[in-house]
Amino acid sequence: MPVLPVAQVQEGDCLTSDVITSLGSLLLPEGRILSDRDLEILQAFLIPNVEVRRNGLIETTEKSEENVPESEVQPLQQKFLEMEKLLKHSFDRTGPGDKLPVLELRKTLLELIDRIEEYNVLTFVPVQDGSPVERWIRNSVLCALTSYKLAKWCKLPEKDWTQIALAGLLHDIGNVRIDPAIFHKPTRLTPAEIQEMRQHTVYGFRLLEGVPSLSQGVALAALQHHERLDGSGYPMKLSGDKIHQYAKIVAIADMYHAMTTTRNERKGQSPYLVLEELQSESFGKLDPLFVRTFIDRATHFHNGMLVQLNDNRVGEIVFTDVQNPTRPMISIYGEIVNLSKQRDLYICAIYSA
What we know:
Blueprint lengths: L2 E3 L8 E2 L3 E2 L5 E3 L7 H9 L4 E5 L21 H18 L9 H12 L21 H19 L4 H13 L9 H4 L7 H8 L1 H9 L7 H9 L20 H16 L10 H11 L6 H11 L7 E4 L4 E6 L9 E4 L2 E4 L8 E5 L2
Antiparallel strand pairs: 1-5, 2-5, 3-4, 6-7, 6-10, 7-8, 8-9
Helix pairs in contact: 2-3, 2-4, 4-5, 4-10, 5-9, 8-9, 9-10, 10-11
């Protein structure tokens, strides 16, 4: 939990450690929900900072996934878990001759999308309910939400939004055709195994092509989400306008979630650093307009948000320059840190109320 300057503490914050006076006596106990009067007491005793938990406060960098009792799971989280379980069950049953339960998947996805206004791309972290989680399935559900948001932000026709969300949900379905010994191999893959892994795009296209209720764009997103504008992608080395619009959007969502998610021994990267990497990738590889829109809208309205820098200091975003949306100005104990000037510093964790 963050240690905050008393000036940034709010009524309703919960102390996560005892507050001790300079003489060593207990001032306020751990677990206390702070009132306006408590804030006055902290200031009167010249307490510089306290450790708190804010209602709904989530650290997004380490992607902590503690088990949460079902009664405490928020509606968006509950619908996310339902979608994840249905997707896993559906993929587990995708054998030769089996039909994908598209109508059921669509219905559950629409119920999840009904909570889309509660979904913040940078701060949302799925909870754990004790069930085993397969990262690629979890990322598929995240890609569905992010692809939907990006399609809406880019002002694509509304009729495309749900189909693009389905494209994000199903883009990696071809993984079910990969040899499990290769897919789950803990050591480095051989060149032949890498080529087999890349075939998941072709396998996915074959599974989705011609499926009723799915547009051709959904199947093409499965086939093309690893293609790049300069022709450096796979499986067909397509370039420019030969890549379907759905695939261009899903590619951005897929890269973002792959890079921010912790897997095996690799810790997820800071969302802000990933946005910068996506920006650099947009030159010649990703659609630059879609990437710019994604960065601008994902970082929009974040003034007042608490963040942690890589030097462990916690501060508040006070200004975001539209030219440098990933490097805002941060107020730390009254000092303004301009990340666009101090390039050695960056946001490594986000705290969202």
